[in-house]
Every structure is written in C-alpha cells, then in structure tokens.
Amino acid sequence: MKKIKVAFLLVCSVGLVVSCGKKQDDEFVDGWKPVYSDESGTSTIETKTSEPLQNPGRIYVYEEFLMVNDQGKGIHIYNNANPNSPYEVSFISIPGNMDFSVNADKIYADNVTDMVIIDIANPAQPEYTNRIENVFPVQQFPDEFGPFECVDPSKGSVIGWEKTKLQNPKCFR
Amino acid sequence: MKKIRLVLTGAFVIGALVACEKEEVEVVDTPVESTSQTKNAISGSGLGGSMAQFTIIDGYLYTIDYKTLNIFDLADADHPALTESIDMGVGMETVFHQNGNLFIGANDGVHIYDVSNPRSPMEVSEFEHVTSCDPVVANDQYAFATLRGGTECGGNLSLLDIIDISDIYNPSLIAEAELTNPYGLGLSAVDADILYVCDGYSGLKAYDISNVSTTGTADLIMHVSDFEAVDIISTDDNNMIVLARTGIYQFDASNPTQLIEKSMIPVQ
C-alpha cells in the first residue's frame, strides 16, 4: 500500500513537473512587480492636502477620521464626521508604507525598513516627529496573492508593488 | 541524478500533502495561574481592519511581518522602544486582539498569544490548518479565519473556519463554510450574531453565527456582489466601512443585512 502511495505521488509530481515545463514562453499573466528605489528619497516624509486614492491596502478608524493606507505610498486622512460625505484633510506621503496604527494622536507607520512617527493632533497638518531605524525587514513579496516578479536586492529596496503582466513568473504567493 | 531528483520531488510532494492534511491542535504552553485581568479597553488608539499587521493594545504596538513579531513600548510616544522581537519561524499575515489575546493569522494556522504581560507575549495555543495566508478575527467564544485555496497546497477549496476558543488552550474546529476568494472579515458591531466576510470578487457576505455549534456551519444570510470586497470595519454607530477594489464604501448597517450605501471614496 505504501509503495503504491509513493508510486502514485511520484507520478503526480512528474505530472506537476511536466505541466510546468509545458507552459508556453509567451504566456503573460496578471501579477505584481516590485517598485525599487535608490536610497535617496525613500526617507522623505511629506504632507499634501489630498492625493488620489490608488491602491488602498488598510482601513482604520480613529475618532471622527477614516484613515486609508495607499500601498507603498502613504496614508490618506479623511474627515468622516459625516460618513455620507467624507472628505480628505491630508495625505502623508510615506515611501514603501504598507501598514500603520494610531495611538494618542501619533501615527506609527512603516517606511521601508524604518518606523516613522507622525503627530496628527491637527490631522490637516500632520507633523513628522521621529524615525526608528531598521526595525522592519525588506519586503520580499506583495501584500496581494498570486504571481509576482521575484525581488532582486541588487536593484535597491522595495518601496511598493505595481500591477503588471508577467511572463513566466518564477515567484508566487 | 535523475533518480535523486525524482525522489526529492516525491518527498516534496509527500511533505506538501502531509502539511495539507494536518489539522490538529497543539498546546504550546501550559496555563499559568493568572489573576490579573487584562483590560481590553484601548486608550487612545483606533480600530483597524482584519488585514492589519499593526495593532496597539494598552500603549504597546505589536507588528508582524513574514518572520517576526515585534513589540514596541509607546510610553514615550515619539520614541517607541522595541522591547521584544520574536522570530516566529513562520510567515505571518495578520494580527488581531481580543480580550487580552493576540490572534495571529500565520501561514500554518492561527497562533494565539496571551499578552497580559504586554512585553513578553506567551503562546497559548495554535490551531493548525492547511497552508494559507488569511486573516483571523475573534470574539470571546469563537475565532473566525478565512483560508484561501489555490495556493501552495494546491487545494482549491476556500473556507471560513470557525474555531471554538472557549477553552483558549484547546481551540477546536466547530464549523466551516465554503468561500470563493476570501480576504478580510469582521464581526458586526450591531448584531453579535453576524459575521461579515469579504469574499473578494464574489462580494460581501454576512453569516449568522448563532447556531454554529449545533449545525456545524454558518448560514449565509446576505450576499452583496456589486463590488470586490477586501476588508471591513463595523462600528457601533451603525456605520460600516468596506474596502473594495473600486473604492471605500460606507453603509448604514442599522439593519445589518440590509445595507444602505452612504458614500464611496473612489479609487482613481
């Protein structure tokens, strides 16, 4: 019985390998590719009054504000006192940002491998206050599932991911 | 050489299958007499969705990534101190807290940590499931995890797992429901018997969870398929926020299965 099982599994695995090999070279699939940054500029935290919402990753409710992480880009702050008509009061540009949390008017957010602290006592004018260096690992894969272009560390640090068509992607999640 | 390769591939497949079949509970630590009641009330922090990898409990920030659970003491707000960094040895996707416990959705299951000593979380138990990458939320009685099919294990079934955690040291699977393309999920703040599940391109679903222990499943009582739902926050002011591919929707959820759209912030 055991033997049969093993044989069966072997056949399966051969099947897998064959089906992999059969894939045509010109086959394109939807996937993600890393956005690299040279070190310059990745630690620049900037505030704008608003920014189009592009690739929302996280939602967060803090007091009467709705906060939305835009993957790899930063955090939108909307006044949501009236959920019938939320309006953006500021956008904090944080390169590589994927997540954040808020405590006592301070945002704690990832900025590539650092943590940045931003004061939002006045949410219309967020103020960057500090940075804790090298507390997060370099991103290895996108937040989303599916195929992606493998990270090449020689190209710099990954600050985000963008949708793309991939030819024979080697990495998958 | 070819033979070795075959054997290796075979072994790999066996390994993968074994990992898939595993669904058992592992008690990691024995209970420690604890008299201190953990205060769940959050002072000054907000409310995130179920996909969150950052969460704050009583002045401590917990962050997870594909390998590490970090704990930051926020006592000095502008100078958070990294007090602990735990190498989990497994990929983690989401973190959720409920009643003094951290629920970590990891690739190999749901890990439950007691954070009554916030600086050094103690692993209480682990509910192992098929390899997956999806979030977990919980109330006092149940943990709810969505499992995504079609990833490493090759299983094509996507599921909602409902895990009985009334004995936190012995979590056990009590009910399952089939899903299509699951992402985040969240309990209704309006009706404790309702769980919302964001089922990706299949839309937003609501389940009645009042009879899960007797029926072994959760009844689908609402299905909105107008948008691709990713995550949800339900608040006790009857507002519901849904992160969808096309934008951020808000609904009046005073009737939790008859959602009335209030607004939408579009993705541009």
Number of strands of chain B: 22
| CATH-derived topology of chain B | Methylamine Dehydrogenase, Chain H
Q: What gross morphology of chain B would you assign?
A: globular
Assign a percent range to the helix content of chain A.
10-25%
Mean pLDDT of chain B: 84
Outline the biggest β-sheet of chain A: 5 strands, antiparallel
> Please, how many helices of chain B?
2
> What is the makeup of the main sheet of chain B?
5 strands, antiparallel
Helix fraction of chain B, binned, reads under 10%
Give the percentage of residues in beta strands of chain B.
over 45%
The interface involving the most residues is between: A-B, 54 and 54 residues
- Quickly give the CATH architecture of chain B: 7 Propeller
Give the uncertain stretches of chain B in residue-range form: 1-42
Q: How would you describe what is shown here?
A:
- The complex is a heterodimer of chains A (173) and B (268).
- Chain A is built from one helix and 13 strands.
- Chain A is mostly beta strands and 173 residues long.
- Chain A has a domain at 43-130.
- In chain A, the strands form four sheets. A five-stranded antiparallel sheet of chain A has the order 2-6-5-4-3, with no helix packed on it. In chain A, strands 7-8-9-10 form a four-stranded antiparallel sheet, with no helix packed on it.
- In chain A, β8 (106-111) and β9 (114-119) form a beta hairpin.
- The two termini of chain A are 34 Å apart.
- Chain B is mainly beta.
- Chain B is built from two helices and 22 strands.
- In chain B, the strands form five sheets. A five-stranded antiparallel sheet of chain B has the order 1-10-9-8-7, with no helix packed on it. In chain B, strands 3-4-5-6 form a four-stranded antiparallel sheet, with no helix packed on it. In chain B, strands 11-12-13-14 form a four-stranded antiparallel sheet.
- Chain B is globular, with a radius of gyration of 19 Å.
- At the A-B interface, α1, β3, β4, β7 and β8 of A face α1, β2, β3, β5 and β19 of B.
- β3 of chain A pairs antiparallel with β2 (47-48) of chain B, so a sheet runs across the interface.
